[in-house]
Amino acid sequence: MRVRTTTDAGEPLTATRAWLEVQRVMSDCRGEVEGELYLRGPVDSLHLPVGRLSNLVIKFRTSSLLSQSSGLTNYSTLIRPREGYTYEATVNYKSALFTIDIIEIAPQRASTRKLPRQDIANCAIG
């Protein structure tokens, strides 16, 4: 999986940090953290096991020097990578609004599709 990230808090003296937590999905639809990756720039190669259900949790922390406050926003979705396919994620955060798109690309770039968001609570269905 490749990940492209853009963050902009939209206010002076305010910063936003983003990171990705990869969770192995257990049989009881609970996520077990396997690792975290800070999204400071493009990530060219993030390995997700083919055929295994993983929960991707993208977190944004915004902090302000002026108000001395911080906030945390999370987005999570399930993914089950398929053999021969590649995946690209675009993560954008600007002025407290975020968009996250995960695209599945077929072999030889024959087709692409945007993966729908899937909640870990529905892992038995996914």
Attribute tags:
126 residues, mainly beta, Immunoglobulin-like, four-stranded mixed sheet, four-stranded antiparallel sheet, globular
Describe this structure in words.
The protein has a single domain (2-122), classed as Immunoglobulin-like (Sandwich). It contains no helices and eight strands. It has strands spanning 2-8, 14-25, 31-38, 54-64, 69-79, 86-94, 97-105, 112-114. The strands form two sheets. It has a four-stranded mixed sheet, with no helix packed on it. It has a four-stranded antiparallel sheet with strand order 3-2-4-5, with no helix packed on it.
Helix and strand pattern: EEEEEEEE
**Number of DSSP helices?**
0
Please compute the radius of gyration using only Cα atoms. Answer: 16 Å
Given helix and strand content, the structural type is mainly beta
CATH class placement: Mainly Beta
Strand content: over 45%
Any chance you could write out the topology, listing elements then pairs?
Blueprint: E1 2-8, E2 14-25, E3 31-38, E4 54-64, E5 69-79, E6 86-94, E7 97-105, E8 112-114
Parallel strand pairs: 1-6
Antiparallel strand pairs: 2-3, 2-4, 4-5, 6-7, 7-8
